[in-house]
Fold this sequence. Notes:
The structure holds two protein chains of two kinds. By secondary structure, chain A is of the alpha/beta class.
Amino acid sequence: MPSIVKPLIPLSPLPKNELGLTLRDYEGAMSTLCAGCGHDSVTAAISHAFFELSTPPHRIAKLSGIGCSSKTPTYFVRGAHGFNSAHGRMATIATGANAANRELTYIGISGDGDSLSIGLGHLMHAIRRNVNMVYVIENNGVYGLTKGQLSASADIGSSPKKGEPNLLAPIDPIMLGLTLGATFLARCFSGDKEQLIPILKAAVAHHGFALIDVISPCVTFNDHESSTKSYKFFREHEVKEVQADFVPLQVPIRATIPSDAAKAVTMHDGSVMRFRSVPEGYDPSDRMKVEEYIRDRQSRGEIATGLLYLDESGPELHELNHTPKEGLNTLPFATLCPGAKELATMQEDFR
Amino acid sequence: MTMTAKSVVGSRVNDFSIKLANVNGTGSASANSLLVQAIFRMGIPVSGKNLFPSNIQGLPTWYEIRVNASGYTARALDYDLVVAMNSQTYAEDIDEVSSGGYVLYDSSWPLDAKLAREDITFLGVPLAAMCLENFAKPRERILMKNVAYAGAVVALVGVDLEVVASLLAETYARNEALRDSNQRALRLGYDYAKENFECPLAFHLAPLDKNADSILIDGNTATALGCLYAGATVAAWYPITPATAVMDNFTRLCARYRRVKIDSDDPNVPASFQNNYLIIQAEDEIASIGMVLGASWSGARAFTSTSGPGISLMSELLGLAYYTEIPAVIVDVQRVGPSTGMPTRTQQGDILMCAYASHGDTKHILLFPANPHECFDFAAASFDLAERFQTPVFLLSDLDIGMNDWVVPKLEWDDAYVPDRGRVLRDEDLSEIAEFFRYSGEDHEFVTPRTLPGSHAKGAYFVRGSGHDKFGHYTETPDEYQEVVDRLKLKHAAAASHVPAPVVLRRPGATIGLITLGSCDLAVREAIDELAEQGLVADFMRVRGFPFVASVRSFVEEHERCFVVEQNRDAQLRSLIAIETGVDIEKMKSVLAYGGYPLSAKQVVDSVLTQREMP
Lengths: 351, 615
């Protein structure tokens, strides 16, 4: 995956964020993915979200595994610290990095092969540990880099470009997350920036593990008639009922957001997630009802998108472990080593 | 291989061995270690080796105690006294008693006449009957049998009864009832032996003063202490025998030394605490090493502990760490492989796997501790090495070191120690340079500076396991790729002078050399003494780290013939020496013991004598 430096064409005046940075500062190298790839839209949305949040680029750690999706961290926030790891193992690296330094914003980019097959165990345990990070699955139902094998998220009956249709039940990361006690679960469509950007921003603000399943069609291998992860299928079957807006702490609630929001959830940092156009009886904090709703939609062949579940009350990894507020990597050695005298004393126990 | 004849028991002070045959899960372990601890406190060099099954309850288990005033406490293979508490293994246990030796058995039931041996003495103690009479609870009747046979052994070999009594008082300081039961059971056995046998036996103990500066400790505890002292703050692991106790101990030590109480100003809010560490029991060993890499990337000292099967799983990410140059400390407490192998038996079978773990061209730094003292020192040193060379470092312990109690010199710590954090550019360093490229600017040891995530934007770069050039950029160009991996090879070689130097013991007139590593240490040194008595003088070299220093090669070259003593089938150390130093492999013969029990000097002596005459 060679990276091509994106030419910085000065288009003045570009809007600046609180840090005085422009959207360009949140972009990365030129994408080498296929033209029209859903992943590039996700990349763009991530750049927008961090730009709008005014997150200092060097305080972002972007990680990935292996696959088309995992190439994308090169294409956003060039000033962030990046880690393109091994297939399926991104969650473990991110967990360790977060364990050592809780002060950064962690975003992991993965795909359906990376997360739902080879790395499924790690994803599940990262959810359980409630590692404070954004975890994006760019889900296209297919292995792109190895040229078109079906993945574990392919729906029954979905066909690869070549070969037989899939007969196995798909793994749905959202249903999985509900079972495992996830605290933030969203599903989006890569082509819908309006929906994706606020959800990404909320995921960053979320206090814990924020899982975003982005249906991101593969134009080369899985955008044909029989695919349920194609642009056409998704546009026809998406039910965008659970719409939400993210209101950062510092920003006053704008008039454009309907005041009759069915549900507003205050995030850990004081910002607010407002759910609008929520179907009647839908409560994004009620695990049982969310599951019922998603299943009901699925049974009708529809895909519910939006921020589907949110729980800001659960303790994240560090709270569960009573670690200090600053990163463990900042603790002075003197506070960590009990010293020679104590070593002599404690050895009386070994006599 | 023929074994030297079994020794005949004679009058010996502080030089004998006892084998205790038990059923696992019956509580014998504490009685056995009580004996070892008491002998240790009498100032006499001693070892206790637990030969146990991979099982929780019901299978045969053995414990061997060797007493040796000269400090040779490797496995003996000659047993002066066998405590036969497991009727399932009576035949083999009785067979192992040296001629003139003793068997202590439970005479509550008659012994099968077929087991009789003319050349040994049977000492029957009605342990079950005594415990039935003296204890009411069924569980107690079983447990106290162990303490009662310990009492008999105390009388038979002359363990100081006062020392044992005070040990029991310390152990059960918070449980008076249990302490009293133990004291009573101890006296039952002790008094019975005193009244019925001639105590002490011809071989017995006499107090010495050899342990004043020593401790009795297992390697896993010492390793955990080393990690604590080195300032490790993040640890990730998956349970596995025989490494589990490393993390159990690290957890216990952290709770004791790294948990800071936070008082509350508000009377309604209770005081809380802060943990200056984070230990994660991961979903598998792959996750464990992944977490270690994430934490080390972020600048924390992080480690994992595992055994061979765990290393197999970690291999892929070990290559990632090597290639992306991320520090990692991996404790491998080796057990018998391949596959599940024999999880509760010892071996040194992971040497080659760890040296070259992962696909592609990889080489790692290995440290070979020989005992718990070195586990402590080397564990601490491994963090310095890992951070200095920005690469994985393996601490290759084994089950014998890790899970058995060893008498070793007290651990020492230098308060002047400053961790070697390696070449890390901080924000102030970054502000002074024009541009930062991750894999450029190597020092004399071929190490390039790194930055930590979160540091100044100038220091941001992309860690990638895919092909990269010296700038850290993706590449598929042959020259650019090779430039980086060539430097990695030189960097690995540069670590040779930083790993612990080999221990070399030379004898005037030596013609052969014995080369070994790790827990073979004591057995090989004892073997050299015995060989000298038989007129074969040998030099000794114990390698303690990989990559090898030049003196490893010259030691082989200086001797007509060398014998490499190690505990694996395929002579892995011998191969590694030949591959890495280029020395003629035919100059090195092998002494191999890989059945799973700790090495004994006898095995070494017999093998060397047999092979000496061979071409």
